[in-house]
Every structure is written in structure tokens, then in C-alpha cells.
UniProtKB/TrEMBL annotation:
<protein>
    <recommendedName>
        <fullName>Lipid II isoglutaminyl synthase (glutamine-hydrolyzing) subunit GatD</fullName>
        <ecNumber>6.3.5.13</ecNumber>
        <ecNumber>3.5.1.2</ecNumber>
    </recommendedName>
</protein>
<feature type="active site" description="Nucleophile">
    <location>
        <position position="105"/>
    </location>
</feature>
<keyword id="KW-0436">Ligase</keyword>
<feature type="domain" description="CobB/CobQ-like glutamine amidotransferase">
    <location>
        <begin position="18"/>
        <end position="209"/>
    </location>
</feature>
<keyword id="KW-0573">Peptidoglycan synthesis</keyword>
<keyword id="KW-0315">Glutamine amidotransferase</keyword>
<dbReference type="InterPro" id="IPR043702">
    <property type="entry name" value="Lipid_II_synth_GatD"/>
</dbReference>
<feature type="binding site">
    <location>
        <position position="139"/>
    </location>
    <ligand>
        <name>substrate</name>
    </ligand>
</feature>
<keyword id="KW-0961">Cell wall biogenesis/degradation</keyword>
<dbReference type="Pfam" id="PF07685">
    <property type="entry name" value="GATase_3"/>
</dbReference>
<feature type="active site">
    <location>
        <position position="202"/>
    </location>
</feature>
<dbReference type="InterPro" id="IPR033949">
    <property type="entry name" value="CobQ_GATase1"/>
</dbReference>
<keyword id="KW-0133">Cell shape</keyword>
<dbReference type="InterPro" id="IPR029062">
    <property type="entry name" value="Class_I_gatase-like"/>
</dbReference>
<dbReference type="InterPro" id="IPR011698">
    <property type="entry name" value="GATase_3"/>
</dbReference>
<comment type="function">
    <text>The lipid II isoglutaminyl synthase complex catalyzes the formation of alpha-D-isoglutamine in the cell wall lipid II stem peptide. The GatD subunit catalyzes the hydrolysis of glutamine to glutamate and ammonia. The resulting ammonia molecule is channeled to the active site of MurT.</text>
</comment>
<comment type="pathway">
    <text>Cell wall biogenesis; peptidoglycan biosynthesis.</text>
</comment>
Amino acid sequence: MTPAEDTAHYASKGTIRVLQLYPREMNIYGDWGNALVLQQRLLWHGYTPELLEYNVGDDFPEDIDIIVGGGGQDSGQIVIQDDLQSRAEHLREMAEGGTPMLVICGLYQLFGKFFKTKAGPVIPGIGILDVETVGTDERLIGNVTLTSPEFGEILGYENHSGQTTLSGGVEPLGTVSKGAGNNSKDGHEGARHRNVVASYLHGSLLPKNPAIADFLIRTAVERKYGTFVPGTPDDGFARLAREHAAKRPR
Ligand code: GLN
């Protein structure tokens, strides 16, 4: 049964439109799984999900409730850079207006001020997040555990050469106890601004961290419909995945 057919079994509480940014170039280590988790959890909560994609050159869809974006190689980030700049103002307005967004790794970097790649080119960011990223010779790879004041323990996997430094105006997502996160020295991971959650973690992130998925969903529903009436998600898989992930070495 497709997720759309599934909704035929109950009266939907409303429709939530989820847009995945640049899945052609920015979808590494299964980051597309984040959109699939939102789709399934929206169904469990009794809402109808609509999954959309935006790639270079597309018309930007209207009435988007949640934005997700994944990671990619430096070469992919270079491919999307001009198109992303052409959408910068719109995305900044959406972020400042409170649209919930999840950006991972390569798009986290480009939601910041710039990414100076190891090979030399500087890829401009769109400045939603007050962060800067510089490519280094040290690749940060491995499993990560962090504690976030909002979401509790977050588990995932990182693989990046860019190291990100946060400025005063932006809070980290949390403090790492395993792995590196934003860079090799500060001991924190990711960034938070308005309803934007930015993180280096793949895995993908949301299957193991449903609290973040439900934050995005709850925020989107409250903005659109006033109140969020939760359903009863099946968290069994997430629990198993977390138990398994917690046992993994660095
Ligand atoms: N290309 C970027 C880096 O290496 C982002 C990598 C990623 O998205 N995994 O830092």
C-alpha cells in the first residue's frame, strides 16, 4: 500500500507539504531517508504527507511546510551553488518566518556564510546560519553521539572535510560525547536558529532520532492549522536502531 492509499483508512487532519532540496546532488549516505521518515510519521500522526523535490532549474513549489536538505560531495555543492543563490532570498524569508527546516552536512554548510573547500574554491552560502566552514586535510569520519537540550541524546554518523565554526548568534544543536561534530576542537555538533535544525549527521538522522522528526512535524502543523493533535507513531524500529547504534564504536 502506498502512503497515499494508507490515508484512505482515516479522515486526514490536514496536509503537510515536505520539500527535499536538491536530492540529485545532495543526498549522500541515505539522507533521503529523512523525507521518508517525515512521510511515515505524518501518516502515523493522522496527517497527509506530500513529498516534493526541488532540483537545479526547477520552479520552486509554493505552500511548503517543511524543508529538508541532505549532504553531498564538494563537487555536488559546486553544481548547486548558483541555483541556491538564486533561491537565497526566498529561503531566508521562509527560515526567518518560522518554516521548520532540517539541513544535513553539505546543505548545513551552504545554509551558513561560506564553505572554503580544501581544493580552493569558496562556495558562498545563503547566510541563514551565522556559521563558516573551512575544508581541512583531516576528514572527520565515524559514529557520533551528542546531547541536545531540546531533543535529548542524538545518534548519527559523520563524514566531512569541512569544519564549521559558529558565531555568537547561533546555538549548537548539542554537545558531543562521541565523535567530532562541527569541528575537531569545540565539542559541539550542529546548529539551531528559529525552526532550522542543522546537523552533520547522516545515517540517515531521523529514523534514529524521531524527536527531531516530531519537532519538524509539530511546528509545521501548528503554523498551518493552529494546534497539533498527535497520533500514535510506532517507535519500535527507532528504538531498535538506537540500541544498535549506541553499541557501535567510534
Ligand atoms: N563536501 C562536504 C565536506 O566534505 C560535505 C560532506 C557531506 O555532506 N557528507 O565537508
